[in-house]
Design a protein that fits this description.
The protein is mainly β. The chain has 2 domains: 49 residues, Roll (2,3-Dihydroxybiphenyl 1,2-Dioxygenase, domain 1); 96 residues, Sandwich (Immunoglobulin-like), CATH 2.60.40. Helix content is 7%, strand content 47%. The protein is built from 1 helix and 11 strands, in the order βαββββββββββ. The strands form 2 sheets. It has a 7-stranded mixed β-sheet, covered by helices on one side. A 4-stranded antiparallel β-sheet has the order 8-7-10-11, with no helix packed on it. Strand 3 and strand 4 form a beta hairpin. The termini are close together.
């Protein structure tokens, strides 16, 4: 499973992980501004974007394959406008998005979402900002963050 980090400067993030921490770059898309890096069994993704003031949003996904559930932990998520929620989406390789949960992080930007299905068959996880309190049936805007499901 790839853990994705949003960074303000992709090139600086890539240098940090490669030169200081010994990661090897395995994929790079300069147009979409993301990179995947690996060191041993650990794989991370970096995506360029301003998600929080003076900080970085971090998402960690634990895929409990035997239980057919996934636990998604968010840290550093920005505060939402009134009446809005974050909505988590699982997206197939053909681009079909399935809603996987609606959440509002606490004041520190933290929350945990339990996805009550297997991640098998999905290639991307995404988060959009939607109308609350229960979200929408299909994404209404471009995702605020995305990550590949390995």
């Amino acid at each position: 499973m790839t853990v994705w980090y949003h960074v303000r400067d992709l090139d600086e993030g890539r240098r940090f992980y490669q030169e200081l921490l010994g990661f090897e770059e395995v994929a790079l898309d300069l147009e979409e501004r993301w990179s995947e890096l690996r060191r041993g069994e650990m794989e991370i993704g970096l995506a360029e974007g301003e998600l929080v003031d003076n900080g970085v949003a971090h998402v960690e996904v634990t895929d409990l394959k035997a239980d057919r559930v996934a636990v998604v932990e968010f840290n550093g998520m920005p505060e939402l406008p009134p009446g809005k929620v974050y909505e988590l989406w699982l997206i197939t390789s053909r681009g079909h998005a399935n809603a996987a949960g609606v959440f509002v992080p606490d004041s520190s930007g933290h929350t945990v979402v339990v996805v009550d299905r297997s991640l098998e068959g999905y290639s991307v996880m995404a988060v959009t900002v939607e109308a609350g309190p229960s979200g929408v049936s299909s994404p209404s805007q471009q995702p605020a963050m995305t990550g590949n499901i390995a």
